[in-house]
Amino acid sequence: HVQLVESGGGSVQAGGSLTLSCAVSGYTSSDFCMDWFRQAPGKEREGVARIDSDGSTAYGDSAKGRFTISRDNAKNTLYLELNSLKTEDTAMYYCANLGMGYWGQGTQVTVS
Known about the structure:
Blueprint: E1 3-7, E2 10-12, E3 18-25, E4 34-39, E5 46-51, E6 57-59, E7 67-72, E8 77-82, E9 91-97, E10 102-103, E11 107-111
Parallel strand pairs: 2-11
Antiparallel strand pairs: 1-3, 3-8, 4-5, 4-9, 5-6, 7-8, 9-10, 9-11
């Protein structure tokens, strides 16, 4: 049974930091490309960051220089470190395995 469970969201002041986690079960996440997406109310879903099976990473324009994607293979967990947060970063953040069609339930980040 595959599950992607995000955690770590919350409310933070502008300029602050958060680290989101995505605990994966049911398959070995490091064998696949994994993504973080976000969606704010009234806006389209936006790709934030990607980490490939070889560890290479890519970021959306809004994330470059502020967010860092990483993974802990031993824990089968994906992370997204959010720094220098802005009010426009307020959104629901999701982890996903697009290739297999798996999504987590999301974790809310609110920046005030």
